[in-house]
Design brief:
Layout (H helix, E strand, L loop, with lengths): L1 E6 H10 L6 E2 L15 E6 L3 H4 L5 E4 L4 H10 L12 E4 H8 L8 H18 L11 H4 L3 H10 L4 H5 L1 H12 L5 H6 L1 H16 L8 H9 L2 H11 L9 H6 L2 H16 L8 H10 L9 H7 L1 H14 L1 H5 L5 H9 L13 E2 H8 L15 E7 L2 E6 L24 H23 L7 H16 L1
Parallel strand pairs: 4-5, 6-7
Antiparallel strand pairs: 1-2, 1-3, 3-4, 7-8
Helix pairs in contact: 3-21, 5-7, 5-11, 5-18, 5-20, 7-11, 12-13, 15-16, 16-18, 17-18
Length: 460
């Protein structure tokens, strides 16, 4: 790591002119020890020697109360790169202290697979049922909250930032889209947050107060005895009790009947203990293991059941998940496990902080600087970049996940324009002649004169 402590004027000079200041080399893990205490100074970092490559800084650390003013000043000029956070990651001193103390741990991969499976259900849910599981693409799944949460866990984001990720993600949706699906997302916020936190506990192997955590842990560890014990304990209040061994030994028709009975009691608000939806969803995964064939049925009946179903299926059927739909899960898991560091620099189009600044004057100007049409990659929190549908205010789209091409008014051809212009000039000339001879073209008298004139000419 190469670093330099710069005053505000020196920092702007570096950004606008490219002149590299005097730099010192240090260990990448020692960022914390170089954070300036003076509010007028900022820490600028490069991963490689800037004197040899003439690169913009990969990381700029600015005091907490100065970040917004700095980004606003950068975007007020005409010569600087914009959006600036597409080139340099800008974080606060508080964030730098948190991230420099994080230890990267190899977490439980099956928890990430559960989140990827959850992203399937989330994407279909946001699309309003207009797409089926086999029609999912990586681009659609990456626009989900579950995918972003998986990225945060894999990159070792501090717990303090992960807790605020949901609200930051929803804010980004509101800034980049028409908001047609924002209300739908907010309705699912409670359930999704519960599942995301459960996935975090499973990933780090920590204790969770969620009663489903013991069953989820047993599924991840693939221990049938532990799974059976958890099931018996969670269903002891059910009027019709049965073991998982009995369920597995039953015919498919018998399993469907037992599952349907649990759904009927759930609909009638019987045996509800706060987690019966999760248990019914888990039961559905045991009817046809290693598949997602019951998702559509559950989604049409109860979206909460469908979301739990996909999460549970992802935890216990990793092979079925990773090979699903041509390896869609494998592709997403590959991208999730692409670990980043603060000194790697940003990979997206803009950060949420700069997006807030630019949104004050409108986001229409950003569209020309994006890597993909109608899509923007935003670093919601440091090290977590997510994709979002992007529609400027004059061209908002109905749905975040809608891919329908809408008809647009057709402009007239060049020949039509020429003929229309000639007709306008002809009418204008006729009106000028009428005014010169004091003739009212709209008067009935003129038409009578014309009739009499034609009549006399015939007489002669």
């Amino acid at each position: 790591m190469w670093h330099s402590e710069l005053l505000r004027r020196e920092l702007f000079d570096l950004i606008l002119t490219g002149r590299t200041p005097a730099c010192a080399r240090a260990n990448d893990k020692d960022i914390l020890y170089h954070i300036p205490q003076d509010h007028l100074s900022s820490l600028v970092c490069w991963k490689t020697d800037p004197s040899k490559e003439q690169l913009l800084p990969a990381l700029i650390i600015i005091h907490d109360d100065e970040v917004t003013n700095f980004l606003a000043a950068i975007n007020s000029g005409t010569n600087g790169p914009s959006p600036f956070t597409a080139f340099s990651r800008v974080i606060t001193t508080a964030e730098a202290r948190l991230y420099s103390q994080v230890r990267r741990e190899k977490g439980e991969q099956k928890a990430l697979q559960g989140l990827i499976s959850l992203s399937f259900a989330e994407a279909i849910h946001y699309a309003g049922g207009r797409i089926q599981p086999t029609e999912l693409t990586p681009a659609i799944c990456k626009r989900t909250l579950a995918y972003g949460w998986a990225k945060a866990l894999a990159n070792g984001v501090p717990v303090e930032h992960v807790q605020n990720f949901v609200d930051s993600w929803l804010e980004t949706v509101s800034l980049t889209n028409s908001g047609a699906r924002l209300d739908l997302m907010r309705q699912q916020k409670g359930l999704l947050t519960e599942l995301l936190h459960l996935a975090s506990h499973l990933f780090y192997g920590t204790h969770s107060s969620n009663p489903i955590s013991s069953l989820s842990e047993a599924l991840i560890e693939d221990k049938p005895m532990l799974t059976e014990n958890s099931w018996d304990r969670l269903t002891r209040d059910w009027s019709q009790q049965f073991s998982l061994k009995e369920f597995e030994a039953s015919t498919r028709e018998e399993r469907m009947a037992l599952f349907q009975n649990s759904l009927n009691r759930l609909s009638a608000n019987l045996d509800l203990t706060g987690y019966s939806s999760a248990l019914s969803a888990f039961l559905a995964t045991q009817i046809s293991p290693s598949s997602f064939e019951h998702f559509s049925i559950l989604s049409s009946r109860d979206r909460q059941l469908a979301i739990w179903y996909m999460f549970m299926a992802g935890l216990q059927q990793p092979r079925g998940l990773l090979g699903f739909n041509g390896g869609l899960g494998s592709r997403l898991l590959r991208d999730v496990n692409r670990i980043e560091s603060l000194l790697d620099g940003p990979v997206g189009d803009i950060s949420l902080r700069e997006l807030r600044v630019l949104a004050r004057a409108g986001l229409e100007g950003i569209s020309k600087r994006l890597g993909h049409s109608n899509e923007i990659e935003v670093e919601v929190i440091p090290l977590v970049t997510c994709s979002f549908r992007f529609q400027p205010s004059q061209a908002k789209q109905v749905s975040l996940f809608d891919t329908t091409i809408y008809d647009t008014p057709q402009r007239p051809s060049t020949l039509d324009e020429v003929q229309t212009e000639k007709f306008k000039r002809l009418v204008s000339t006729a009106n000028e002649l009428a005014r010169f001879f004091n003739i009212d073209l709209n008067s009935d008298e003129n038409s009578n004169v014309a009739k009499r004139s034609r009549k006399k000419s015939r007489e002669y």
